Amino acid sequence: MSRLIVVSNRTPGKGPAAGGLAVALRKTLSEREGFWFGWSGRLTEHPEREARFEDIDGLSVAQIDLTRDDHHDYYAGFSNSILWPSFHLRLDLATIEAHWYEGYRRVNVQFARALLPLLKPDDVIWVHDYHLIPLASELRNLGARNRIGFYLHIPFPTSDALYAIPHHNDLMRDLSRYDLVGMQAKRDVAAFTEFADHQSPSSLSGNPLKSVDFSRTEVDSFPIGSDPDAFARLSVSPAATKMVKRMERVLREQKLILGVDRLDYSKGLPQRVEAYEKLLANNARFRRHVHMLQVAPPSRDTIKEYQETSDALDAMCGRVMGRFAEPDWQPLTYVKRAYGQPSLAGLYRLAKVALVTPLRDGMNLVAHEYVGSQNPKDPGVLVLSRFAGAAEIFDGAIEVNPFDTDETAEALRIALDMPLDERIARWTSLMEAAREHNVDAWAARFLDRLAPATTAGSGTRDILYLASVA
Ligand code: ADQ
Q: How do residues 169-227 score in pLDDT, each as one tens digit?
């Protein structure tokens, strides 16, 4: 079997991996030869040319350092102030500084130059996420003929949003240098196809005259998941039970409504708190009988728009507290820190309702983790945004438009009042979907398509895949 090289912006750190994705990819890598390649997390004076290998908890990891300026332009700049907001259809929050593109490109070149000498001809390369769209182009420019796949962890934008990104044509041409491009949801493949069919109008940036040829690239949806059975076990582990007991002492008879997110404007946090405010305003009977817990540790907090989201959320939570709190009852708790998976699993299990209401999201793994953690005899209810990729597979959720806070408030009421038999029926269907789309199946499906085991090896590199968009 050929080796697998996983490439992502950051390499996984020591200790228990935070996300299900790191766990899944670790597992995939432990089952075959290969290594993980990416940025070490360290900033240096001069760009590093050669990668250093390190054994991180049994995983072979090759890492490079980046210069402070390159890292800023590539990460905070082009990746997170242009690509992230545009791909999430938040052009109002994008800062279009076209010169960041040079740093973005430079880092991708640096990745390619450091990775190339480590490659064998039949290695299969799996590149992750929007930071590294140009990597296949840069590797191919240096002569790599390996099978290279790309997986996008965020939604694919509409054509209009794509046109707002400087050098979007170059980026699309970069995507066409991959053998396989994986998206989260059918919706994303449809958006990609729409772009590929119509292509970009002329613009000053990029090269508008040459259309992008996707005929050698296969594009498909590979909905990512978590490990629901692992969460089921975790949710009754001693560490989870400790968290449950701690919360039960405070909650007593109150029903817990839970939100767990990175603090990001795509997650719809102020809208969510507003919906909760409307639930309490419209239904006085819930006051003193429910409690909302929002866990949202800061992320990317050097970027202005993230600080503003944090401020908006602080203000919303303060408003709800001021309006409804009493000396002996608080309507909500807002915790700005991350928890380990066992504590999260305990919170998920205790929560009668999970509010997963992003304004736009690739998949949303919190929804999967919540489903996995439920007590089958007394499951909670998932209130889910129709703009999360998860909505395509989770028919058992109550689906809402997160921009419509009246609708979300009503969904909350329905969830809190839902009888046990309906909760069990909905959860059974949700758990079935979470198992079908578990993270191991996701990785296996992607890799089978990228390099089928029976034909893996140098001979596969000349196979032409017909593009689903052709
Ligand atoms: P994220 O935007 O980070 O991921 P999400 O999928 O919900 O969003 O969460 C990823 C992981 O982070 C989950 O395993 C979750 O447990 C963990 N996490 C989130 N909030 C946490 C908290 N407060 N404390 C501790 N852990 C927390 C991106 C895309 C998603 C896509 C994933 C995977 O934005 O759409 O589903 O990648 O592809």
A: 899 999 999 999 999 999 999 999 988 887 655 555 555 545 788 889 999 999 999 99
Angle, alpha carbons 465-468-470 (nearest 5°): 90
> Parallel, antiparallel, or unpaired for β 290-295 and 398-400?
unpaired
What pairs with residue 61 in β-bridges? 36, 54
Pocket test for ligand 1, best of 227, 335, 364 (most atoms within 8 A of CB): 364
Give dist(CA 43, CA 45) in Å, integer.
Answer: 7
Distance 19 CA to ligand 1 centre (A): 7
Per the CB < 8 A criterion, the answer to whether 164 and 133 are in contact is no
- The SS3 of residue 55 is strand
Characterize 33-49 residue by residue with b for buried, 16 or more Cβ atoms within 10 angstroms of its Cβ, and e for exposed: ebbbbbbbeeeeeebbe
How confident is the model over 268-288, as a mean pLDDT? Answer: 98
Closest residue by Cα to residue 84 from 209, 266, 332, 322:
266
Tell me the C-alpha distance between 305 and 264, whole Å. 9
Q: For residue 121, how far is the Cα from the chain centroid?
A: 31
Q: How far apart are CA 63 and CA 144, in angstroms?
A: 19
Identity of residue 253: E
Alpha carbon 458 to its chain's center: 32
Query: Could you read off the pLDDT of 405-429 as tens digits, one per residue?
Result: 999 999 999 999 999 999 999 999 9
pLDDT in tens, 365-408: 999 999 999 999 999 999 999 999 999 999 999 999 999 999 99
Task: Characterize 160-171 residue by residue with b for buried, 16 or more Cβ atoms within 10 angstroms of its Cβ, and e for exposed.
Answer: ebbeebbbbbbb
Structure letter (DSSP) for residue 155: P
How much distance in Å is there from the Cα of 466 to the middle of ligand 1?
A: 33
- State mean pLDDT over 138-150: 98
Of 433, 435, 434, 400, nearest to 415 by C-alpha is 400
How far is ligand 1, taken at its centre, from the CA of residue 464, in Å? 35
Question: Which atom of ligand 1 is the closest one to the Cα of 365?
Answer: 6
The answer, yes or no, to whether any atom of ligand 1 lies below 6 A from the CB of 338, is yes
- Cα distance from N-terminal residue to C-terminal residue, the chain: 31
Q: What are the strands, taking DSSP E only, across 296-380? A: 332-335, 353-356
Residue 446 and residue 25: Cα distance in Å, rounded? 12
> Which H/E stretch holds residue 38?
strand 34-44
Is the Cβ atom of 365 under 6 angstroms away from ligand 1?
A: yes
SS3 10: strand
- pTM of the complete model beyond 0.90: yes
